[in-house]
Specification:
Blueprint: H1 6-14, H2 36-50, E1 62-63, H3 68-71, E2 83-90, E3 96-97, E4 106-107, E5 110-111, E6 126-131, H4 138-142, H5 146-155, E7 166-168, E8 177-179, H6 191-203, H7 220-226, H8 243-252, H9 266-273, E9 284-285, E10 300-301, E11 309-311, E12 328-330, H10 354-364, H11 373-381, H12 384-394, H13 412-416, H14 424-427, H15 451-460, H16 475-480, E13 507-508, H17 510-518, E14 521-522, E15 535-536, H18 538-546, E16 549-550
Antiparallel strand pairs: 1-5, 2-3, 2-4, 2-6, 7-8, 9-10, 11-12, 13-16, 14-15
Length: 552
């Protein structure tokens, strides 16, 4: 294979769609198949999604957050750690009352003034928290046909069979029902309905589907005093799109989270063997409904979820919503679970390690009355080796390719390795199995880490690759092909003759550190840009700190 020059790299990055292999989109990125016009709609939608509403723009009078991205923030459009409060009343004879006349079952936590603030009414004897779901790949999920979801339900063993929550969409006929798939109770079936409902209930933005504001604790007189903006508050922009249409575009065209490696891990076989896949269905193919964009048609996706309601027994939230009872929750899709913190519908498993959160979540499937008891017990009965394999597989769901340190970017550390991680350089030339740590660098999964994988690494690389010796070849490739880099820092040894000694005193010290700080940011051919990536940043700062003292 010929060496890759910087000019050739730029050409590859521009035309990477023509490659046989290219990086998977990372969490929060758009579908790669979008046309230019759809990509523009996605970007405009992302702007609206991140926009903070103002009181003049329709915020409130009661709300939970001022923008969609305040909650869906890991990444923008993904899950979050924010929670909302649900409440209701259960009488002595049973039966759930959402206390709608007192503002239930959702309590908005914020208000445009203290006079308008909601409280949990004293009548409520059921209070539950719900953590923010992910909106990634909402369009692909919406494009799964009702028939596919119902077929999954019908094929499930009776003891684990889910319930399809049949609901209507705001944009359709009230009599036309679809399988719900969004929300913890699968109470929403379309992305536009989700956007309109969230706009009103989470931000207080009345819109063409819900053309009214919520009254604080159901008090209409208080609403009249608090609400000063005419309803509906949402309206068309200069191109004729409402806010709810813009944020729908963003959510509809989000790509699924990556999965690395994409197949072959032993833990997935364990996942299947102990029954996890009964509810966490691995694969769907989207339909081809003429009302959805063609880029969403006939796409194979791997959400690891069935979007059905299942009885979780004592682990439910006690809230009745539509036809979903207090013990039922929707099976959350597991794609992206590797970076999800907290976990469970109310966020009860947070902090700690990914492994600890996963183990706690699996154990919680085993509580009294839960349809997940068989799988939870089967996991407990596994050998330590098989449990570890299953957890490693779950850790692949959401992991970006080449991301050795799991920080959701691809940078120099992921080339040379950092701390206890193995970078591309350490894996180059190896023949990893899908369970080997080096498998994240064999992204074409042909059984070896080679220059074909390096081509894809360069496309995924988030910085401008350095060429410190000016030979027209990226330094990382020079290193792979034998140029010395004895300290394994991704910088050619020949470029490190007292590299970082900017004032020429043959010592790396405080003057050089101050030089880094003064030059911080984008630069071109400046001495403070130690790794020649076009920017002075933390990588250059860490080099100074790590090489402090007299030059040798």
């Amino acid at each position: 294979m010929q060496k890759i020059t910087l000019a050739a790299l730029l050409a590859i990055c521009i035309s990477d769609s023509s490659l046989g292999n290219s990086p998977q989109p990372r969490a929060g990125e758009p579908l790669q198949t979008l046309t230019d016009s759809l990509l523009t709609r996605f970007e405009l939608g992302k702007t609206s999604y991140s926009q903070d509403l103002t009181i003049e723009g329709g915020l409130g009078p009661i709300f939970n957050k001022t923008s969609c991205a305040n909650c869906h923030n890991n990444p923008v459009g993904g899950p979050g750690s924010q929670t909302v409060t649900r409440f209701g009343f259960i009488g002595k004879k049973g039966g759930f009352e959402p206390l709608a006349d007192l503002g239930g079952s959702l309590r908005q936590a914020e208000a445009i003034s203290e006079d308008c603030a909601e409280v949990i009414p004293p009548e409520a004897n059921v209070i539950a928290m719900r953590v923010t779901n992910s909106a990634l790949a909402f369009g692909l999920i919406e494009a799964i046909s009702d028939a596919s979801l119902l077929a999954i339900r019908d094929a499930q063993p009776e003891a684990q069979r889910g319930q399809a929550h049949m609901v209507s969409n705001f944009e359709g006929s009230p009599e036309e029902l679809h399988v719900g798939r969004f929300g913890w109770k699968a109470q929403v079936a379309s992305v536009l309905t989700f956007s309109a409902d969230a706009a009103q209930n989470e931000m207080g933005l009345s819109n063409r589907f819900l053309p009214f504001d919520n009254a604080p604790n159901g008090n209409m007189e208080l609403l009249a005093n608090c609400d000063t903006i005419a309803d509906p508050e949402d309206g068309p922009d200069s191109d004729g799109f409402d806010f709810v249409d813009r944020v729908t575009d963003f959510q509809r065209f989000l790509a699924p989270p990556p999965q690395t490696p994409q197949f072959g891990m032993q833990g997935e076989m364990v996942f299947m063997d102990i029954g996890c896949a009964v509810c966490h269905q691995p694969t769907f193919t989207t339909g081809n409904d003429i009302e959805t964009e063609s880029v969403l048609h006939n796409v194979s996706i791997h959400p690891y979820g069935d979007f059905l309601l299942h009885d979780m027994g004592l682990a439910g939230d006690g809230i009745v919503q539509g036809d979903a009872n207090g013990q039922q929750l929707k099976t959350p899709p597991l794609w992206g679970v590797s970076y999800r913190d907290p976990m469970w519908h109310d966020g009860r498993f947070s902090a700690g390690t990914f492994e600890s959160r996963i183990r706690d979540s699996i154990a919680e499937h085993g509580v009294f009355g839960s349809q997940g008891v068989p799988s939870s017990e089967a996991f407990t009965a596994l050998s330590t080796q098989d449990q570890d394999a299953l957890i490693r597989f779950l850790g692949s769901l959401g992991r970006a390719e080449f991301d050795s340190d799991r920080d959701n970017d691809v940078e120099l550390n992921d080339f040379h390795g950092y701390s206890d991680t193995v970078g591309f350089r350490g894996c180059y030339g190896t023949t990893p199995t899908p369970d080997d740590p080096c498998a994240i660098h064999d992204v074409d999964q042909d059984g070896d880490v080679d220059l074909e994988d390096f081509d894809i690494f360069l496309i995924a690389f988030d910085d401008i690759p350095a060429d410190c010796n000016g030979n027209g070849v990226v330094d990382m490739l020079d290193i792979l092909l034998g140029e010395p880099d004895e300290d394994n820092n991704g910088i050619l040894d020949k470029c490190q003759t007292c590299l970082g000694d900017m004032n020429g005193d043959n010592t790396i010290g405080v003057h050089d550190l101050l030089g880094i700080i003064d030059a911080w940011g984008t630069c071109s051919n400046c001495s403070a840009d130690i790794n020649s990536d076009g920017a002075v940043n933390v990588t250059d700062l860490l080099f100074i700190v790590g090489n402090w003292g007299p030059c040798t």
